[in-house]
Amino acid sequence: MTDNSTPNPADADGTPHPADGSAPHPVTTPGTGAHAPTPRLTSLSHGAGCACKLSLDELTTILQGVSFPGHPDLLVGPSTGDDAAVYRQPDGRVLVATTDFFTPLVDDPATWGRIAAANAVSDIYAMGATPRFALNLVGWPRDLPFELLGEVLTGAVEVAVDAGYLIAGGHSIDSAEPLFGQVVIGDTTEDAVLTNAGARPGQALVLTKALGTGIVTTALKRSAPLRDTDEHTLALAYRAAVASMTRLNRDAAEVALASGATAATDVTGFGLLGHLNRVASASGVGATIDPTTVPILPGVRELLDEGFVPGGSQRNAAQASRYLDGTVDDVTRLLLADAQTSGGLLFACDPPAAAAAVERLRDGGHDAAVIGAVTDARAGSVRVGSS
User: Fold this and answer.
1) What residues are annotated to the active site?
2) CA 207, CA 305: separation in Å to the nearest integer?
3) I need a labelling partner for 161 at 20 to 30 A (CA). Which of 186, 227, 249, 379 fits?
4) Residue 46: is its pLDDT beyond 70?
5) What total of structural domains would you count in the chain?
6) H-type helices in 198-308, by residue range?
7) Residues 245 and 124 in one domain
8) What is the pLDDT of residues 353-378, one digit of tens each?
């Protein structure tokens, strides 16, 4: 793939424009009182969103050398690599706990806050639980205006209010790159918990959001800033990606539970292939994907053709060789391995229920589809091919 990196773009007077068309934020130069525009947030990040994750193979290698004590009340812990931890309470309910944070993947601080919060709470929904409260996680360079951090936090509050959970505090450090995310705590009943270990052969696989956010945000980072009036491929793809990344997975989780889903996960930094591999491995089953049915965000294929591919997506695609059955062309593999941020849910349920779930989700504005099936093939294996 070609490297489409460009210097941080600016007007003739040296003023850069944030990628969403908002006005640049001035910063006072110490000792002068003069104002200079702040850099694009994406220029301060080495990666984009969940594409910054350590790869699945790297994590597996690291965790092989660590022994985590268990407990009878820890119902879901590190062993299955699920979306959240689940701990049984004396009253029969369970606590569900997760955390997620990442560097900027967009230039508007409030939008980054909204995406980060929607991404963090998604793990609670993937486990079939209801979010109750969150703690913010912040890393912030001291030479970056704190007003921007205030906007990030405000964006997160907007999502929390929509989702119905409280932000009860947090922790901050001085860091080289901006970082933001949340610890989110939820609860549910023990019998309502969805894990990644319950898929059964013969079930259908439902995906509730389109893929491609990693490719779009990488193109954003490497391209000239967008303006509100832009109508080219990247501009249209960016708007669609932001709408997708800020959409809560709350409704998708409700539909999954109502459909009798027995396994679920959310699709984030390991891409669709990686997260499906984890479901199949934890469940002791195989899986198939029909790539012609997988929803893709508008403009993503064109951006991929131009060489915009996150490093995380490339690692995902390369490591997929370990569990893929058969051959997959490079473009399809990259799309299915694209590192998502605040992606959709992937859940398994009986085929008739899956068809009804997709209809209900589409009626609610979700770009959902039945994308494959659970099989009795080798545990963890994934076969890609049209049915």
Assistant:
1) 50
2) 24
3) 227
4) yes
5) 2
6) 213-222, 233-245, 250-258, 271-283, 300-305
7) no
8) 999 999 999 999 999 999 999 999 99
pLDDT (tens digit, 9 = 90+) per residue, 211-245?
999 999 999 999 877 777 778 899 999 999 999 99
Residue 331 belongs to what domain range? 204-384
Residue 24 has pLDDT above 80, yes or no: no
Structure-token pair, residue 373: 């099936």
- In order, the DSSP letters of 305-346 are HTT---HHHHHHHHHGGGTEES---HHHHHHHH---SS--EE
Judgement on whether residues 208 and 164 belong to the same structural domain of the protein: no
How far is residue 113's CA from residue 93's CA, in Å, rounded to a whole number?
30
Mean pLDDT across the stretch 267-291? 97
Structure tokens at 226: 């967008």
Cβ atoms of residues 348 and 204 within 8 Å: yes
**Phi, psi for residue 282 in degrees, rounded to 5:** -65, -30
* Both structure tokens of 276: 């499906």
CATH of the domain at 91: 3.30.1330.10
CA-based torsion, 344, 350, 354, 360: positive or negative? negative
Mean pLDDT of 72-99: 94
Q: How far is CA 86 from CA 101, 126, 128, 251, in A?
A: 20, 12, 11, 21
Whether the model clears a pTM of 0.90, i.e. scores above it, the answer is no
Pick from 46, 47, 25: nearest CA to 36:
25
- Residue 35 forms part of a structural domain: no
List the one residue out of 160, 82, 182, 162 whose CA is nearest residue 128: 82
Kindly report the CATH number assigned to the domain that includes residue 247: 3.90.650.10
